[in-house]
UniProtKB/TrEMBL annotation:
Provenance organism: Branchiostoma floridae
Protein name from the UniProt record: Structural maintenance of chromosomes protein 6
Region (Disordered): 1-63
An example Gene Ontology biological process: double-strand break repair via homologous recombination
Highest taxon above the source species: Eukaryota
């Protein structure tokens, strides 16, 4: 139909290409339209035929190409109405959804309306969106896939070949949209985007003809109101939307007309105001003479100022010459101090070289030390192994000798005993041997188990002891850290009222006594400190970086000379706790801040430490520049960027190191990570640091409790395992004794021979065997002892070698200690020499700066003289000789200007009057231009709206003729006759239908027809309206519920014929009838049929695909 435009100032011909999105509300016919003469009784058949012949589009040639855009490819319902999950994939042309009443097929139509943004009231299935959520569920989801192909596709680069619309419904009434591409990517979540999609595809969700549900169809069948049918026609063809748009334009025209009237009413008043201001503008000419006199005085004033400035240059030039004469003395002092620094640095480098040589020697000994240590361990292990083997062989030798003695005793007993009843004694002896062997097997198995358990207990004890050692070390670390944190927490809590307590509870008392001593005159200069309390941060994120840079200087004090150092050290001995005395650094105090502009680091992105600190005391800032070169250290928050600046690129000039926000120190070729992650002194929020310290202390206390509990458990486990080990060893000894006893008894019984006299040869052979074993074991003992003695010698040699190398390393370390002391003293000498050099360089710099400042002041005055001379020439090109002072001339100028001001009070300020006049004249012209433009616009709008209203009437008449023609053709297929009668004046539409059995009597009220005839007539009416609408799909729900078989067959044939002629449109029919037996539904190329199973509230996804495949198989068979 007509696609809505952004502007209503152009005339568009009615088109069937796109539709305008329909707005809710009743149709109101435009008054201008109603005044036109129109055909009141509908179109005649002659007009219908002429229209058909004149418009070839009404013949509907058979279009074989399916639609590229706008049709529904699939719909998915989740927890919607009675369905847990329901999915459909529709065909591009005809789709039947067949199911018994109550199977939930109408949910497809409802889901389509709701999913595309329709309201609940449109569906006639519920009063609110949340009523569609399945009982017992919290939310429902509807997903619809719309085809998006070809030249008319909507944003194909973003969505692809399909637009997926998802709508989620919640129990609280909330709803949300997601518009996705074919790949599942979310493109938009806005309702406006969905409206744009529907507009582009001409989808009319609230059009009752596009989506006709059961209630709308039933109400239409029973409706007698011709006005309702007419509104139905207007809504289906979007004529109602066009009329509504025209009404909105007319309302906007009235508002513009009202604005125009308001502006026209203000014109006379504005014209009068402009005339009055023009007269005031002309009355200001009398002040020109006074203004000319002021101009002459200003010329004299300008040259008077030049003369006074020229007199001020002479004393400045004289002072500059006096200072330049003192420069050679400062140059000599600087040279002498530089030589002292070079000598101290050479000494420092020599000591450092010696230390490096010692370190190289230690490094060279380390591999030998480790090798000797490993060899020593290897020898110790070998000796332990040999000792264990020696004990084992010794035990075997003792056991063998004991067994030999027992066998000898048995031989003696057997020779002395009297043998009786040998047969009975043999049987008893064999039985006894069998019983003893069974006992022996049980004891041996028990012994094996006991040995395994002893090994396990021994390994467990060893493992637990190692864990015990590690835990005790962890416990000691936790206790040390806990004491440090408790002391730190105490300092922080005290610092809530006194920030100095951050540096220790003693610090306020120390600072107080320093102040008292200074007031008593004991110091030459008041010492500064702790230095961390004298500075503050501009960027709190750099707190850890600054503390890592300054390190111990944060806690230190600085003194002006050695006298002040001794006094301060005496005060510290009285106040500071043992081990917490701050360091004292001597540095000459300078009350003026150093000028570091020439020697400092400059970087466009990263500041120096000096830039991020607020230091009120110049002594402190000068001290930090001397001791730490804070003007040459960069602050770079990001570690990666710090490496990039300092190592991968050429470092900035005058910069050798940088610090990151994490406290890491970055050199040009080295990188040192910080050993802490929190700042201690410069944090802004004390409460936050107190809380963090308390949390850390609490975690440490919890860790300590857990560690102590683990220690107790380990000690208990060690005791238990040792007890079990001892118990099993005792059990092993007892078992071994029982084994030996049983083995002896078995050997004793086995050695008994039956023949008489008693034969002891077997036992004697056993004795010989024991003798051989004893001899072998004794030889083995000798071998083991020999090996042990050799291994012991190797062990002693290895231990000696290890001790020798270890002693060398210790001696090297001891020899390095004096050098370290010398290095520390050399550092102090360098520091002092640099301080002296810095002092003289600063003095030299201050001297040169003083000359430069004086020269600058001279140049400034000279430049000012030059500028004032130039200004004077601009004011008065001829130089004037003025005897009066500039002040005297200025006073006269002020007096004349006061007089001018008094005149302006009476007549008005000249500039204000002039400005006011031109502004009012410009405003008056602007309003006149606006009135002219508004009149032109209203005239153009009236012409356009007149054309559009005429076209609207023609277009409405054409659609009425077209619908009537199609309606008549559809009735003829059933043998019916009739027509659609339009009356556009009173906005009514009536259907006149004559059935084939009514004896040619026209039935004007369709309710007098049978249910099937009414349904058939309704279908014809719907098909006629379908022919006049541009929606890409049409949906009917239970269209044939009141039809008999004949009317149903004819209606279906008509709809299928329409579908075949409109292959570029999509049709979705919902019916409870079994449609599989109808011959006109055999064309599978254009049709898909879905059969709904009986409703099962507990099912998940309904098995439509499988049933469709079974139907296709049945049809093929």
């Amino acid at each position: 139909m007509v696609k809505r435009k952004g502007s209503n100032t152009e005339v568009d011909q009615p088109s069937t290409s796109k539709r305008a999105r329909a707005q809710s509300g009743h149709h109101e016919e435009d008054p201008d339209v109603e005044e036109e003469e129109e055909e009141g009784d509908g179109a005649g058949e002659e007009d219908v035929m002429n229209l058909t012949q004149g418009d070839p589009n009404l013949n509907h040639p058979n279009e074989v190409k399916e639609a590229d855009t706008g049709i529904i490819e699939a719909i998915s319902l989740k927890n919607f109405m009675c369905h847990s999950r329901l999915e459909f994939k529709f065909g591009p042309n005809v789709n039947f959804v067949v199911g018994k009443n109550g199977s939930g097929k109408s949910a497809v139509l409802t889901g389509l309306v709701v999913g595309l943004g329709g309201k609940a009231t449109i569906t006639d299935r519920g009063k609110s969106i949340k009523s569609f959520i399945k009982h017992g569920q919290n939310a429902a989801e509807v997903a619809i896939r719309i085809r998006n192909r070809g030249l008319e596709a909507y944003k194909p680069d973003e969505y692809g070949e399909a637009v997926i619309v998802e709508r989620r419904l919640a129990q609280d009434g909330a709803t949300s949209y997601r518009l996705k591409s074919i790949k599942g990517k979310t493109i938009s979540t806005k309702r406006e985007e969905l409206s744009h999609v529907l507009d582009h595809f001409n989808i009319q969700v609230d059009n009752p003809v596009s989506i006709l549900n059961q209630d709308t169809s039933r109400n239409f069948l029973h409706s007698r109101n011709a006005s309702d049918k007419y509104k139905f026609f207007l809504k289906a063809t979007q004529l109602e939307q066009m009329s509504s748009d025209y009404s909105t334009i007319q309302e906007q025209r009235e508002e513009i007309q009202a604005t125009l009237r308001t502006k026209e009413e203000t014109v006379p008043q504005l014209e009068k105001i402009v005339s009055e201001k023009e007269q005031r503008f002309k009355d200001l000419a009398t002040l020109q003479e006074l203004e000319k006199k002021v101009e002459g005085l200003k010329n004299m004033y300008a040259w008077a100022q030049v003369h006074e400035l020229e007199k001020q240059l002479e004393p400045i030039a004289k002072a500059i010459k006096q200072e330049e004469a003192r420069t050679p003395k400062y140059d000599q002092k600087v040279q002498e101090s530089m030589k002292k620094v070079e000598a101290a640095e050479a000494k420092h480098q020599d000591i450092q070289q010696k230390l490096q040589e010692l370190a190289d020697k230690v490094q060279a000994l380390n591999p030998k030390h480790e090798e000797a240590k490993a060899n020593l361990k290897l020898k110790k292990d070998a000796c332990k192994k040999t000792q264990a083997e020696h004990r084992k062989v010794l035990n075997q030798l003792k056991t063998t000798k004991r067994d030999r003695e027992q066998v000898m005793e048995r031989i003696d007993e057997m020779k002395d005993s009297v043998q009786q009843d040998y047969e009975a004694e043999r049987r008893a002896r064999e039985e006894q041997i069998r019983l003893l062997q069974e006992q022996l097997q049980k004891l041996q198995a028990q012994q094996t188990t006991t040995d395994h358990q002893i090994d396990q207990f021994a390994q467990a004890v060893t493992l637990y002891k190692e864990q015990l050692y590690n835990l005790k070390r962890d416990e000691q670390d936790i206790q040390n850290t806990t004491r440090q944190l408790q002391r730190r927490l105490q300092d922080l809590q005290s610092s809530r009222n006194n920030s100095l307590k951050r540096f220790g509870n003693f610090m306020p008392d120390l600072v107080r006594q320093i102040n008292q001593a200074y007031q008593q005159g004991r110091f030459h200069q008041k010492p500064r400190g702790p230095l961390g309390s004298c500075i503050s941060l501009r960027d709190p994120e750099l707190a850890l970086a600054v503390e890592s840079c300054l390190k111990n200087l944060m806690f230190a004090f600085c003194a002006n000379d050695h006298h002040d150092e001794r006094v301060l050290e005496g005060i510290m001995k009285q106040v500071c706790p043992q081990g917490r005395r701050p360091s004292i650094i001597i540095s000459r105090f300078h009350e003026r801040p150093y000028d570091v502009s020439t020697n400092r680091v400059q970087h466009p992105d990263y500041p120096a430490v000096l830039d991020v600190l607020d230091i009120e005391d110049p002594v402190v800032s000068n001290f930090l520049i001397d001791q730490r070169k804070i003007e040459c250290v960069l602050m770079i928050k990001d570690n990666k960027e710090a490496r990039q600046v300092m190592q991968l690129q050429r470092p900035p000039r005058n910069c050798n190191e940088a610090f990151t926000a994490m406290g890491d120190q970055v050199y040009t070729n080295r990188y040192y990570s910080s050993n802490t992650d929190k700042s201690s002194y410069l944090r802004v929020s004390i409460e936050e640091e107190v809380q963090e310290t308390q949390e850390r202390l609490q975690r440490l206390q919890q860790d300590g409790s857990a560690t102590r509990q683990q220690l107790a458990e380990l000690e208990q486990d060690i005791r238990k395992n040792q007890q079990e080990q001892r118990r099993h060893q005792t059990q092993k000894m007892k078992t071994q004794e029982s084994i030996n006893k049983i083995q002896y008894e078995i050997r004793d019984l086995q050695s008994v021979e039956e023949p008489t006299p008693v034969d002891v040869s077997t036992l004697e052979e056993e004795v010989m065997m024991y003798d051989e074993q004893i001899k072998s074991l004794e030889e083995k003992m000798e071998t083991i002892e020999t090996d042990f003695n050799a291994q012991k010698e190797d062990l002693e040699e290895a231990e000696s070698a290890y001790q020798q190398i270890d002693q060398q390393i210790r001696e090297l370390a001891d020899s390095a200690d004096p050098l370290k002391d010398d290095l520390g003293r050399a550092d102090i000498e360098i520091s002092q020499a640099k301080q002296h050099r810095k002092h003289y360089e600063q003095k030299h710099k201050e001297h040169l700066k003083k000359i430069a400042d004086m020269q600058k002041e001279h140049d400034k005055h000279a430049k000012k003289v030059e500028e004032e001379t130039g200004k004077a020439f601009q004011i008065c090109p001829e130089r004037l000789k003025v005897r009066r002072t500039a002040k005297n001339i200025e006073n006269e100028i002020v007096q004349i200007q006061k007089r001018i001001a008094q005149e302006e009070v009476k007549r008005g300020n000249r500039e204000e009057v002039t400005k006011d006049y031109y502004e009012s004249r410009e405003q008056f012209g602007t309003i006149k231009d606006q009135i002219r433009e508004l009149k032109r616009f209203i005239k153009s709008l009236d012409e356009i709206m007149f054309q559009r209203q005429q076209l609207y009437k023609d277009f409405r008449r054409m659609l009425a003729l077209r619908s009537n023609h199609f309606f008549i053709n559809m009735l003829h297929q059933r043998g019916f006759s009739g027509k659609m009668k339009f009356d556009h004046r009173v906005c009514t539409l009536s259907l006149e239908v004559q059935s084939s059995e009514s004896n040619k009597q026209v039935t004007k009220d369709m309710r007098s027809l049978s249910g099937g005839e009414r349904s058939f007539s309704t279908v014809c009416f719907i098909l006629a309206l379908w022919d006049s609408m541009e929606s890409p799909f049409r949906c009917l729900d239970e269209f044939d519920v009141f039809m008999d078989m004949v009317n149903r067959r004819i209606s279906m044939e008509m709809m299928m014929k329409v579908a075949q002629d409109h292959r570029h449109k999509q049709f979705i029919f919902l019916t409870p009838q079994d449609m599989s037996s109808h011959s006109y539904l055999r064309d599978q190329s254009i049709m898909r049929m879905w059969r709904m199973p009986d409703p099962d509230r507990g099912t998940g996804v309904l098995p439509f695909e499988r049933r469709v495949e079974e139907e296709d198989d049945d049809r093929r068979n």
